[in-house]
Design a protein that fits this description.
The chain is mostly beta strands. It is 0% helix and 47% strand. It is globular.
Length: 125
């Protein structure tokens, strides 16, 4: 099992940028062996997929709503995964969660196993 901790959330104006970070810790799982992802949940809505990155960082996946605006990256030497968010919109407002898969690459049909506590992102008009 792994512990995931997100940081970097906050309040930003529409059109602005934020960078979220997630650090993994614990024993039993090697960070670099697994795909990582970011999800978000807005009030009254279902949790939705945002972005994912494969174990080596060689491939990425993005929700259509964030393509061209968000960039996911990872540093396996530091056990971190980041989400750079540019051109933010009010509809991006949500709690953002970091998650770890049990596979090397992202699969839409494969649930993520481990989750962080979330960090709030609020985009004002």
């Amino acid at each position: 099992q792994v512990q995931l901790a997100e940081s970097g959330g906050g309040l930003v104006q529409a059109g602005g940028s934020l960078r979220l970070s997630c650090v993994a810790s614990g024993s039993g799982r090697t960070f670099s062996d697994y795909a990582m992802g970011w999800f978000r949940q807005a009030p009254g809505k279902e949790r939705e997929f945002v972005a994912a990155i494969s174990w080596t960082g060689g491939s990425t996946n993005y929700a259509d709503s964030v393509k061209g605006r968000f960039t996911i990256s990872r540093d396996n030497a530091k056990n971190t995964v980041d989400l750079q968010m540019n051109s933010l919109k009010p509809e991006d407002t949500a709690v953002y969660y970091c998650a770890q898969s049990d596979m090397r690459r992202y699969s839409a049909s494969r649930p993520f196993l481990y989750w962080g506590q979330g960090t709030q992102v609020t985009v004002s008009s």
